[in-house]
């Protein structure tokens, strides 16, 4: 019987809590996250407002809860964009002849060499700051990592006997890719998705912090951090709560990614 | 009495002289703390942090307050200017007389001013500059020169300007960008290479970062202290504060994060100046939109906003509630905040009555710190009254100027109007507020043509009319909040002109 993987469990629990918090925020938050109440601005944590209120008198806990939606939404779409483009590219690069494969991978290197945050800032400057542009930019920046990982996995699959048999039997490349290669790189996709999710969470927070992400008044952890700058000395809790939320979310997705990798690769686990 | 040098051996003396000479030379070249040349500041420099970078350096064709803030009075000069109390005083014109019918102005000009392209400033340049406002300027404020019937040079140092009708406003407008004097041979590249007669000359513009001005050593008047002044632009208000704390800049020209002001007030290294400005932060309505045709909707919006709470929330309570488009430094100022007091219940019922309740308004906000903050409060308060508000951030200046200011594609917006005495300019059918009110125009015309008492009386009526008609909502008046290194002198207490006067700054 397999040992319980602590990374997988910890990551799963953290991600589960975040997902649950986001789902609950659709039906319930302690207060309206965008409701401005100047009479209670900068209130300290209390029974009424567990995390206190910000400079607009908005409940910080409610904002953290609704902000988790933004975080997850950006993560899902960005990883989706990266996977939808990166996985076929990776499989294609593994299956085609030498020079088209080289072309695909060098193009990947080109995108990889471009700083992801800079790409996202450029998108924000050209198309306007919004959650959508942030998601697409982060997604595009994550394509090369998907393509690289999937290509290496697909190359291994392409050398297996059943693929060789399928090719010898005259099967076309497309059915081979869908029937044999894709199912065998699913574990790699899952692990890479989890790792990319953590990167996307961090990137969205950074972009919102810089003013190129989710515009106000939609709650976002990164923008909460940005708005807290004025109060770093007088009300540091305004930076601590979203900062901790971001750190926990990134940790959760990274642990989940590590755990999944160990789970799908028993040899790696045995070496520990 | 023996000199102390006599005690030194010859080689030691030589070394001492050499060291003194090296120190003297290096002190002249470093210039951080010594004087040299014809100005008390030697080659000392200063860096000032500001918020909104100009979209161009040509204020004849590009709207926006950032260009005159940087260039007017510093690179360009006008015939007359305002002093710190708002009084009109000589500049390039030494003196002037007004004919009994108040239609002819005769200016005696200084005879030693010259442009930074080495051309002398004469009455012909003044005629060229005045005529050019009508022929080549495209900004909305150019209308202030429409009243001029003609301008002619009586001699190289004497200028006569004839108005088509008496105007109280015209001479005042000549203190603003409208009155800037240009050289006929210096207007080819206004957007990138401004040429004026001012105490500073344009040096370079690092787009997205800074504008560098250098002392005009050929300046006709009192030469400024600093050899070089850099105007550094920051989009983020906290970054602006941090730049002063780290010594990147010496002055914060306009504090945009007032909540963090305590870090400067409690530090002996800095001085904090708090005064007043002309900057009315306006929640503008697009009065051409059907929803704003009903006065009840406009009034309800004004009554739905708790202005005191808004000021506390988005500008740390600094600034002043005004209730109309007149700052306290204007002679016709009245506190009109009582015209639309905060009354949520009444606002709700008025919105129900006008049929606006439940409708969605598009609030297009420039990406300026105060607008972003105030916009969130306005949205929340209007939604409590029964409206729906969708916030759409517009990059400032380019996107906001194009979408809101030029094309009036908006329902509501928030921006500070910092031009002096701008009531008539902001509220007319051609401006982005699209406010067409013949009664208001009658008051403004009577104020312009009447005597001083009539001007004050009619401007008061105009301000009251605007407030009663709820042509917009005046959220508050921006304070003049400056933070600077303790040893910087000459910073203005109040910012009541279009320009940031750099010529008075010293260390």
UniProtKB/TrEMBL annotation, chain A:
The chain crosses the membrane at residues 7-28, 72-95, 107-126, 132-150, 188-211, 231-257. Keywords: Cell membrane, Membrane, Transmembrane, Transmembrane helix, Transport. GO terms for biological process: transmembrane transport. The keyword Isomerase does not apply. It holds the Pfam family BPD_transp_1. InterPro entries: BP-dependent_transpt_permease, MetI-like, MetI-like_sf. Belongs to the binding-protein-dependent transport system permease family. Residues 68-257 form the ABC transmembrane type-1 domain. This is ABC transporter permease. One of its GO terms (cellular component) is plasma membrane. The keyword Zinc-finger does not apply. It is found in: Cell membrane. It is a multi-pass membrane protein.
């Amino acid at each position: 019987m397999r040992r319980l993987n602590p990374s997988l469990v910890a990551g799963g629990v953290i991600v589960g809590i975040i997902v649950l918090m986001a789902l609950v925020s659709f039906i319930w938050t302690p207060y309206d996250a965008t409701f401005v109440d100047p009479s209670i601005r900068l209130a300290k944590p209390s029974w009424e407002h567990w995390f206190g209120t910000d400079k607009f008198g908005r409940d910080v806990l409610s904002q953290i809860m609704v902000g988790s939606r933004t975080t997850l939404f950006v993560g899902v779409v960005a990883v989706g964009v990266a996977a939808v483009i990166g996985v076929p590219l990776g499989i294609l690069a593994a299956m085609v002849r030498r020079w088209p494969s080289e072309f695909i991978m060098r193009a990947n290197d080109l995108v990889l060499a471009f700083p992801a945050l800079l790409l996202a800032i450029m998108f924000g400057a050209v198309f306007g700051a919004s959650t959508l542009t942030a998601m697409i930019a982060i997604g595009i920046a994550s394509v090369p990592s998907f393509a690289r990982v999937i290509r290496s996995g697909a190359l291994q699959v392409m050398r297996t006997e059943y693929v060789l048999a399928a090719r010898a039997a005259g099967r076309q490349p497309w059915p081979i890719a869908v029937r044999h290669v894709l199912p065998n790189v699913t574990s790699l996709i899952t692990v890479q998705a989890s790792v990319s999710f953590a990167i996307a969470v961090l990137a969205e927070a950074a972009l919102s912090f810089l003013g190129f992400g989710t515009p106000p008044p939609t709650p976002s952890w990164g923008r909460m951090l940005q708005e807290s700058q004025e109060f770093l000395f007088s009300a540091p809790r305004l930076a601590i709560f979203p900062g901790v939320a971001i750190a926990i979310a990134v940790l959760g997705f990274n642990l989940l990614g590590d755990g999944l990798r160990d789970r799908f690769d028993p040899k790696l686990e045995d070496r520990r | 009495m023996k000199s102390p040098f006599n005690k030194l051996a010859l080689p030691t003396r030589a070394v001492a002289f050499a060291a003194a000479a090296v120190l003297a030379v290096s002190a002249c070249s470093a210039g951080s703390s010594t004087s040299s040349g014809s100005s008390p500041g030697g080659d000392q420099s200063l860096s000032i942090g500001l918020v909104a970078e100009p979209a161009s350096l040509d204020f004849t064709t590009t709207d926006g307050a950032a260009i005159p803030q940087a260039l007017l009075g510093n690179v360009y000069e006008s015939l007359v200017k305002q002093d710190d109390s708002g009084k009109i005083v000589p500049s390039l014109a030494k003196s002037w007389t007004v004919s009994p019918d108040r239609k002819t102005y005769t200016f005696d000009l200084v005879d030693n001013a010259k442009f930074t392209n080495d051309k002398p400033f004469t009455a012909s340049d003044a005629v060229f500059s005045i005529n050019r406002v009508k022929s080549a300027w495209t900004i909305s404020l150019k209308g202030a020169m429409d009243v001029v019937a003609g301008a002619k040079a009586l001699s190289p140092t004497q200028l006569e300007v004839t108005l088509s009708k008496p105007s109280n406003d015209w001479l005042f407008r000549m203190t603003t960008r409208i009155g800037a004097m240009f050289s006929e041979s210096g207007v080819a590249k206004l957007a990138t290479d401004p040429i004026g007669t001012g105490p500073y000359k344009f040096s370079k513009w690092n787009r997205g970062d800074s504008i560098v001005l250098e002392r005009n050593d050929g300046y006709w008047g009192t030469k400024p202290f600093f050899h070089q002044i850099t105007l550094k632009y920051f989009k983020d208000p906290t970054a602006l504060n941090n730049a002063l704390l780290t010594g990147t800049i010496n002055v914060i020209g306009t504090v945009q994060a007032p909540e963090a002001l305590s870090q400067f007030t409690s530090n002996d290294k800095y001085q904090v100046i708090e005064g007043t400005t002309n900057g009315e932060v306006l929640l503008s309505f697009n009065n051409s939109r059907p929803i704003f045709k009903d006065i009840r909707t406009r009034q309800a919006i004004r009554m739905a906003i708790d202005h005191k709470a808004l000021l506390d929330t988005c500008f740390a309570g600094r600034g002043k509630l005004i209730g109309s488009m007149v700052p306290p430094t204007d002679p016709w100022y009245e506190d009109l905040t009582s015209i639309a007091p905060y009354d949520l219940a009444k606002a709700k019922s008025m919105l129900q009555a006008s049929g606006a309740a439940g409708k969605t308004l598009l609030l297009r906000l420039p990406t300026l710190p105060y607008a972003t903050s105030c916009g969130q409060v306005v949205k929340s308060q209007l939604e409590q009254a029964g409206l729906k508000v969708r916030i759409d951030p517009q990059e400032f200046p380019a996107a906001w100027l194009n979408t809101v200011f030029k094309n009036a594609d908006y329902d509501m917006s928030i921006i500070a109007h910092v031009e002096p005495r701008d009531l008539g300019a902001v509220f007319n059918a051609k401006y982005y507020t699209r406010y067409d009110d013949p009664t208001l125009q009658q008051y403004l015309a009577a104020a312009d043509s009447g005597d001083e008492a009539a001007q004050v009386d009619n401007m008061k009526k105009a301000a009251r009319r605007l407030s009663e008609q709820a042509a917009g909502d005046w959220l508050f008046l921006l304070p003049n909040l400056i933070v600077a290194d303790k040893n910087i002198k000459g910073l203005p207490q109040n910012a009541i002109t279009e320009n940031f006067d750099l010529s008075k700054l010293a260390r």
